[in-house]
Specification:
The chain is mainly beta. It has no helices and ten strands.
Length: 138
């Protein structure tokens, strides 16, 4: 895989009432692999935000810097907690990752994550997120 890549993230969130919302984002990033982990780094100069992704077949960590800092960990071996700054103040969210699937080829790296998100002991959503990483066009 090239160092310069294009990332497409598609997220599906289903709330407790069964309503599903889909979100998509695409952006350029830098990719590298070290030891048993894949890494992505993206910078958005317009919003002064950066994102770093570290992942393998059972783990994904996403760190976002900028106006709001967040660290999300999806790990099939444990339940993870994170704090979000919202318009209503700081809120804790819990992520219970059910499955992570990683496929890796020279043309595409694809990671799919299925997880439950809750807050205050109540289910917020059932989620499926797909990251597709392809070499950037030259």
């Amino acid at each position: 895989m090239n160092k310069d890549v294009w990332v497409k993230i598609t997220g599906y969130q289903t709330d407790p009432e069964g309503q599903t919302d889909t979100n998509e984002q695409e952006f350029p990033a830098q990719y590298f692999r070290k030891d048993k982990f894949h890494y992505l780094i993206s910078e958005n100069e317009q919003t002064a935000k950066s994102s770093r992704y570290k992942f393998n077949h059972r783990f994904l960590e996403v760190i976002r810097d900028g106006d709001i800092y967040s660290k999300l960990i999806f790990d099939t071996s444990k339940i993870c907690r994170t704090m979000y700054k919202t318009p209503y103040g700081r809120m804790e969210f819990v992520f219970d990752t059910n499955q992570i699937t990683l496929s890796d080829s020279p043309e595409e790296i694809r990671i799919e994550i299925s997880y439950e998100m809750s807050s205050g002991g109540q289910s917020v959503s059932t989620n499926r997120t797909i990251l597709v990483i392809t070499p950037a066009s030259t």
